[in-house]
Every structure is written in structure tokens, then in C-alpha cells.
């Protein structure tokens, strides 16, 4: 009898261990207004789905502080600042896994970064991508769930000067900052253009000039070829370091998520990822990642299924309250030719030319998806669903930027756009029951 009772007592535990795993994934979140005050049923249902997943990921593209620090000399564009209570809104929304490496990480210098990380720590939100030295910035963050331990490794290829973390030495502390994935760029040009560049290098540095073969100029490499092209390659030093972190996470966690903030795309094609990003995504999966999620260009990019694992090359925006950040440093006002007496509303009006340029009139910026990935207990992917969302394109500044479920017609447009982008990777996305559904067996075994 005691043996039977013991067996029965273990059944719930066995069920929990074999339940698989579900994660909700979003792109960039820039928030400085309350999410929890709205009561529309479909809106609340959207967040219920994030909450009911084992893990909810977003890239936190803002800083948490009360403007007690001066703005840095260089920013990622808008100097980001969000009130401390946003951690409550993030938790309300269901997020418990956050990327913290992006081009705004040092908008308010080291103080702004530390203030943000301390606020996330105090709220119990797992985050990765920034830290007190390079090893800590690269290190996985861990989240314990009822269906296993989750590791997040995060980095950025788009960042401001001075925001990169540095290595620790036995005799000197490492530099705080973010985990970078740098890359090199090679331009293929015609022979005449290459020789013209070679002459320039001879004029600037005759002793160090390259007199034959490829030419290094302006931080890039130029080579001769029949067809003009641009190719990017991840810096081996950074790639190897991040891959080491992923392999470490693979042995320390049940599920591994890799995230990158990457604005870079193909020349003139912002919806197509740069070469180095594809190389990195494949290396991450090869090293043991269960999925790869990118963000940064603020528009959707395609989805690839590589060796049975999903790669989201950009999930665009989830919360984009870029034009209601409360204060901006003097540099931003001066860049718009505004006087010292100008208000922050004057700044946003001038920057967007009353919503006629930049982000406000750019419709794809305001349309995205929430991706839900369900895994089987053996780490194979069970299903991938894409819930279309609208961030209020064309609405007034105080209203746009908040996510809400897209209307039926718009939902199909968003899924059709993502399907077209994903087709380049051999991925089929269908529209069914108001959502995108990704076919999974077409790429299995590759």
C-alpha cells in the first residue's frame, strides 16, 4: 500500500517534467506609460497569453531612472528614461526574461545602466546582456519555471561608442558595459574604384599603404569583383566568447534563448538581416540554443527554421512609446535648432516635423507580432504561433505605442508580410484563425 501511495504521489511531478515548455517572445519595449489601466477584453486576453507561458521575453530598450544623471555625450537617438514603476508594468504584462543590451544602454552613462539593472534585480526580473565587466555581460541569466530552467544569453551589434564591456584582468578591473557582437564589412567594387581608394591610402599613409590586393579604408575592406556587393562577418573574438556562453548555458539550463539587438540589414533593405546576423544565428543554434530572437530595426524580418529551431530575425516593436519620454538633454534640442526655452513637446514636433517624417508616418514600425513557441519535452518544437498586434499607427502621440490585438483585416496583412519575408528562408507561414502558423516539418533534420 505504501508503495502504491508513493507512486501516486510522484505522478504530478512526472507530468510537470514531461509537459514541455512554452515561451512568448516580443521585440523592443520602450515604455513610460501604464499598461495595466486598460480593460478591453481582447487587450487583456493578449497579455493573458504572455502570462500563461512559462517565460515571457522582451528587449528592454529603455533605462530606468529619475533623470538624476546627466545625458551621455552620445546617445542611441532618443535619450531613454522610464520611471521606476515600469518594473511593475512589465511583471503585470507577464515578462520575466529581459534583454538589456542595446544602443540605448549608455544614454545616461554607467549610472543609467546600473540604475536600470538594479531596478530589474530588485523586481526579480531575469536580464542579460549588460554587466560590470565583459564576462558578466556575456553571462547567461537564469529563470526557474515549473517546466524547467531557462537561460538567456543577450548581446548587441548596434551600440554607442564607450558602451562596450571590457575584460577583467588579474591586475585591473574590467569595464562595465554591454556584450558586443562586432563585425567586419567587406565591399566588392570594380577595379577602377579599388585603385582610386588605393591612391587615397597612399596619400594618407604612404608607409602603411596596401600596394596590391584588398584595401583597408575607413574601417572597412575593399576588394575588386565583377559585381558590387557588401558582405559582413562577425568578429571572431566576440563570436567565440558568446558561443562559449551559450555552450555553458546549454549544460546549466533546460532551455536556452539567445537574443541580439541588431539594426543592421542588407544595404537599402532594412527587412533583410545582414550576413553576419545569419552567421551568428546559425552558430547560436549549433552551440545549443533552442531559439534565437533578434530586435532593433523596429520592423519585422523573416523567420527561419534552422535544424528544427526557430530564428526570428526581428520581432520589431512590442511597446514603442518613443515620443513620450519625459525629458531630453540639451544636445537633442540643439540638434533640432530649438532654443533653451523649448519644451519636450516642441522637440518631438520638430524631430518628426509634426508626425510627417521619421517613425510616426512609417506604418511597418507600428505593426508586429507576439511569437509563441511551444516545445516538446525532448526540446523539439511543437508549434509556433504569431499573434498580430497594432501599436496605433496614425493615432495621436499620447495613444500610439501601446500594443493591442490587430483587427482581422490588419492581422492578415501583417501575417502575409511576414510570410513573404520568411519565404526567403524556406519557411512557410499560414494565416489561420486570425494568427500566423509556421509549418515545422519542412526544415526538420537540416
In a nutshell, what does this entry contain?
This protein is of the alpha/beta class and 446 residues long.
Descriptive account of the structure:
It is a single chain. This protein is of the alpha/beta class and 446 residues long. It has two domains: 18-165 and 174-182 and 243-323 and 359-438, 4-Layer Sandwich (Purple Acid Phosphatase, chain A, domain 2), CATH 3.60.21.10; 191-224, no CATH class. The chain is 29% helix and 27% strand. The chain contains eleven helices and 24 strands. The chain has helices at 2-17, 41-52, 86-93, 109-123, 134-138, 191-204, 236-252, 275-286, 330-335, 344-352, 408-423, and strands at 21-30, 55-60, 97-99, 126-128, 130-131, 141-145, 148-156, 177-178, 183-189, 215-217, 220-224, 229-234, 255-261, 265-266, 269-273, 291-295, 303-306, 309-312, 317-320, 367-375, 381-390, 404-405, 429-432, 435-438. The strands form five sheets. Strands 1, 2, 3, 4, 19, 20, 21, 22, 23 and 24 form a ten-stranded mixed beta sheet that branches. Strands 6-7-13-16-18-17 form a six-stranded mixed beta sheet. A four-stranded mixed beta sheet has the order 10-11-9-12. The radius of gyration is 23 Å and the shape is globular.
CATH topology of the largest domain: Purple Acid Phosphatase, chain A, domain 2
- CATH level 1 class label of the largest domain: Alpha Beta
Architecture of the largest domain in CATH?
4-Layer Sandwich
For the sheet with most strands, the description reads: 10 strands, mixed
Please state the structural category.
alpha/beta
The count of β-strands is 24
Number of helices: 11
CATH superfamily of the largest domain: Metallo-dependent phosphatases
How far apart, in Å, are the first and last alpha carbons? 50 Å
The pLDDT mean sits at 92
Shape: globular
- Proportion of strand residues: 25-35%
| Unreliable residue runs | 1-17, 442-446
Query: What is the alpha-carbon Rg in Å?
Result: 23 Å
Tell me roughly what share of residues is in helical segments: 25-40%
Amino acid at each position: 500500500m505504501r508503495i502504491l501511495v508513493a507512486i501516486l504521489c510522484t505522478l504530478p511531478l512526472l507530468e510537470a517534467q514531461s509537459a514541455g515548455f512554452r515561451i512568448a517572445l516580443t521585440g523592443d519595449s520602450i515604455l513610460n506609460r501604464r499598461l495595466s489601466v486598460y480593460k478591453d477584453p481582447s487587450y487583456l486576453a493578449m497579455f493573458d497569453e504572455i502570462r500563461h507561458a512559462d517565460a515571457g521575453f522582451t528587449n528592454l530598450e529603455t533605462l530606468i531612472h529619475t533623470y538624476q544623471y546627466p545625458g551621455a555625450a552620445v546617445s542611441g537617438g532618443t535619450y531613454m528614461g522610464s520611471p521606476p514603476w515600469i518594473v511593475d508594468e512589465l511583471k503585470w504584462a507577464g515578462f520575466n526574461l529581459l534583454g538589456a543590451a542595446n544602443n540605448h544602454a549608455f544614454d545616461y552613462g554607467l549610472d543609467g545602466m546600473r540604475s536600470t539593472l538594479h531596478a530589474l534585480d530588485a523586481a526579480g526580473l531575469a536580464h542579460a546582456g549588460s554587466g560590470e565587466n565583459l564576462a558578466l555581460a556575456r553571462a547567461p541569466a537564469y529563470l526557474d519555471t515549473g517546466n524547467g530552467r531557462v537561460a538567456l544569453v543577450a548581446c548587441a551589434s548596434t551600440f554607442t561608442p564607450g558602451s562596450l564591456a571590457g575584460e577583467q584582468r588579474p591586475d585591473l578591473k574590467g569595464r562595465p558595459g554591454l556584450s558586443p557582437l562586432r563585425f567586419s564589412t567587406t565591399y566588392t567594387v570594380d577595379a577602377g574604384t579599388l585603385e582610386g581608394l588605393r591612391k587615397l591610402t597612399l596619400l594618407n599613409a604612404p608607409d602603411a599603404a596596401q600596394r596590391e590586393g584588398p584595401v583597408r579604408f575607413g574601417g572597412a575592406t575593399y576588394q575588386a569583383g565583377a559585381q558590387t556587393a557588401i558582405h559582413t562577418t562577425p568578429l571572431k573574438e566576440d563570436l567565440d566568447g558568446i558561443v562559449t556562453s551559450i555552450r555553458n548555458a546549454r549544460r546549466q539550463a533546460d532551455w536556452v534563448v539567445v537574443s541580439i539587438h541588431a539594426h543592421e540589414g542588407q544595404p537599402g533593405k532594412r527587412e533583410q538581416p545582414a550576413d553576419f546576423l545569419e552567421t551568428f544565428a546559425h552558430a547560436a543554434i549549433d552551440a545549443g540554443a533552442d531559439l534565437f530572437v533578434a530586435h532593433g530595426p523596429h520592423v519585422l524580418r523573416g523567420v527561419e527554421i534552422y535544424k528544427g529551431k526557430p530564428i526570428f530575425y526581428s520581432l520589431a516593436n512590442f511597446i514603442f512609446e518613443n515620443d513620450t519620454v519625459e525629458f531630453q538633454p540639451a544636445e537633442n534640442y540643439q540638434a533640432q535648432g530649438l532654443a533653451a526655452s523649448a519644451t519636450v513637446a516642441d522637440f518631438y514636433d520638430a524631430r518628426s516635423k509634426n508626425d510627417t517624417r521619421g517613425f510616426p508616418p512609417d506604418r511597418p514600425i507600428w505593426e508586429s507580432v507576439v511569437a509563441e513557441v511551444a516545445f516538446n519535452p525532448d526540446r523539439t518544437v511543437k508549434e509556433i504561433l504569431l499573434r498580430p498586434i497594432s501599436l496605433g499607427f496614425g493615432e495621436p502621440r499620447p495613444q500610439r505605442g501601446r500594443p493591442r490585438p490587430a483587427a482581422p483585416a490588419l492581422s492578415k496583412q501583417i501575417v502575409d508580410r511576414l510570410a513573404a519575408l520568411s519565404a526567403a528562408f524556406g519557411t512557410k507561414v499560414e494565416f489561420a484563425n486570425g494568427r500566423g502558423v509556421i509549418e515545422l516539418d519542412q526544415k526538420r533534420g537540416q
